[in-house]
């Protein structure tokens, strides 16, 4: 799976020898805020959320990690946020010290981690673009644009006559926290996009994307992570 499939076979064998798989149930905490985690990981299935508690006690989701994303603070200390399972997840974990040692001897792995950091930075920029929108319908449209592009890369979309099926990977309450709004506002936004014919609500967590260009215009975002993810998969740097 991306991104490790681009690495040399010998390095893959070394990573496999130190790796372990772990399953997480939804809402399970993997890493607490302010703690030093002695692991580096990669999401295999499901979605992890990165969050922190604000001064008023409210939780704010600051990012999402999906299949193929690498996480962990190599050559660094404590986490400034917590990492929890937004859905049931399967992850692959590596001991941090041994992973760092491999990075020092294998430039291919070091490059992969750097590209992952650039990808995380792009994700943060896109998230800022989403939450900067004043209207919830713009935020929801932007999130669907992001999912459409990301799921297309991961081949987790299902083409249907008249559009593309996408499954919402997190609960609406988590999506509201991620977008800085309320669950009822998110629901109204989905129905507004449905009424305009841009999407069709199949179930509360499954949507048919009918007019991708319209969603892109509504969101006001033209930022795509697709090129970065293709670079990760091919072993090339971002252009």
TrEMBL record:
Domain HTH crp-type per the UniProt entry, residue ranges: 134-213
This protein's UniProt keywords: DNA-binding, Transcription, Transcription regulation
Membrane-spanning ranges: none
Sequence ranges assigned to domain Cyclic nucleotide-binding in this UniProt record: 3-74
SMART domains in UniProt: cNMP (SM00100), HTH_CRP (SM00419)
One cellular-component annotation, GO: cytosol
CDD domains: CAP_ED
GO molecular function, a single term: DNA binding
Alphabetical list of SUPFAM superfamilies matching this protein: cAMP-binding domain-like, Winged helix' DNA-binding domain
Domain of life: Bacteria
Protein name: Crp/Fnr family transcriptional regulator
Species of origin: Rhodosalinus halophilus
Taxonomic lineage of the native organism: Bacteria, Pseudomonadati, Pseudomonadota, Alphaproteobacteria, Rhodobacterales
């Amino acid at each position: 799976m991306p991104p490790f499939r681009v690495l040399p076979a010998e390095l893959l064998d070394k990573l496999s020898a130190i790796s372990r798989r772990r399953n997480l149930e939804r809402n399970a905490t993997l890493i607490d805020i302010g703690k030093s985690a002695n692991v580096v990981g990669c999401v295999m299935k499901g979605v992890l959320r990165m969050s922190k508690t604000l001064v008023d006690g409210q939780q704010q989701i600051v990012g999402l990690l999906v299949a193929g994303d690498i996480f962990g603070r190599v050559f660094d200390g404590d986490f400034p946020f917590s990492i929890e399972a937004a859905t049931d997840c399967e992850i692959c974990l590596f001991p941090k010290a041994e992973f760092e040692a491999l990075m020092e001897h294998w430039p291919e792995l070091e490059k992969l981690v750097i590209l992952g950091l650039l990808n995380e930075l792009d994700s943060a920029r896109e998230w800022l673009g989403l939450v900067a929108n004043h209207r919830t319908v713009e935020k929801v449209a932007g999130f669907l644009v992001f999912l459409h592009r990301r799921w297309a890369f991961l081949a987790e979309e299902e083409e249907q006559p008249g559009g593309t099926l996408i499954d919402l990977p997190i609960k609406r309450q988590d999506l509201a926290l991620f977008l800085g709004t309320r669950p009822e506002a998110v629901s109204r936004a989905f129905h507004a996009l449905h009424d305009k014919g841009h999407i069709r609500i199949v179930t509360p967590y499954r949507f048919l994307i009918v007019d991708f260009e319209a969603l892109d215009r509504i969101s006001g975002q033209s930022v795509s992570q697709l090129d970065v993810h293709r670079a990760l998969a091919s072993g090339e740097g971002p252009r």
